[in-house]
Amino acid sequence: MKTILVIVMCIAFSFLFSGSNASRVLLQTAQDPQDDLVQPWCNKTSRTELCINSIQADPRSDLKESPTGLTIITTDVAKSNASDSLTKIDNLIKTEEDRSILSLLYTCQQKYQNAFWDLDSALSILNETLSNVQDMDRKQYETINQVLAAAAGEVDFCQSFYEGPPPSPLDDENGKFLEINDVSMQLLNLIECNKTDPCRDS
Ligand SMILES: *[C@@H]1O[C@H](CO)[C@@H](O)[C@H](O)[C@H]1NC(C)=O
Ligand SMILES: *[C@@H]1O[C@H](CO)[C@@H](O)[C@H](O)[C@H]1NC(C)=O
Ligand SMILES: *[C@@H]1O[C@H](CO)[C@@H](O)[C@H](O)[C@H]1NC(C)=O
Ligand SMILES: CC(=O)N[C@H]1CO[C@H](CO)[C@@H](O)[C@@H]1O
Predict the structure, then answer these.
(1) Which domain of life is it from (predicted)?
(2) Mind listing the pLDDT tens digit for each residue in 16-56?
(3) Structurally, how many domains does the chain consist of?
(4) Is the CB of 39 under 6 A from ligand 1?
(5) Which bound ligand lies closest to the C-alpha atom of 126?
(6) 12 is in which domain, residue-wise?
(7) CA 193–ligand 3 middle distance (angstroms)
(8) pLDDT by residue (tens digit) across 146-175?
């Protein structure tokens, strides 16, 4: 329905601007070439919907022109998730009185801080490979893969530290973080290994 409307509008415009370049520009915009990458790459991951939704919510269209750019976006989402979790932990620590939950919160605070810095270093290498317009080399791939896995390990630790009952106040955050971080790892593996699992050869 939306597509039809856009097409009708474009036809209307091309009559108005016939002979000029304006109609051609409008028709190109209507096709939204960015989605050409988002759909097929996210489709290769096991979390297609989360991948597409996270990337589409990001306004930086220049990053959607390469699979490395897509990985930067999902890594940024995970980073801001970690940051949100840290804010939540800070607030909970102020009022929590149960000692075992306090202990969980202090542990997870440390873990999320580490995860945050892990993602930051992943982002700086991803950004480097993006701006050099060169293929990611194997060493860069290995490093990014390691720091993303390390970030997952931190949050895994936070999740398994405390079994409850009651459930950990960070259950939801941990789950969401691990899911979006998993999308970044799958995209990274797809870029370098053409599969969602890490490449271990050579
Ligand atoms: C997504 O993948 C499925 C198979 O897993 C395929 O049937 C479908 O056409 C793909 N869609 C896009 C938009 O690539
Ligand atoms: C990414 O690289 C560009 C160009 O080299 C640079 O201007 C930008 O500050 C970098 N961004 C981050 C987050 O590192
Ligand atoms: C990537 O893997 C798919 C199957 O998973 C295969 O069809 C395709 O040819 C591979 N591409 C390259 C460049 O190896
Ligand atoms: C705090 C939190 O979990 N924020 C977001 C984390 O990322 C997901 C998407 O993966 C969002 O839906 C959450 O709101």
Answers:
(1) Eukaryota
(2) 444 444 444 444 444 455 568 999 999 999 999 999 999 99
(3) 2
(4) yes
(5) 2
(6) 1-31
(7) 9
(8) 999 999 999 999 999 887 788 899 999 999
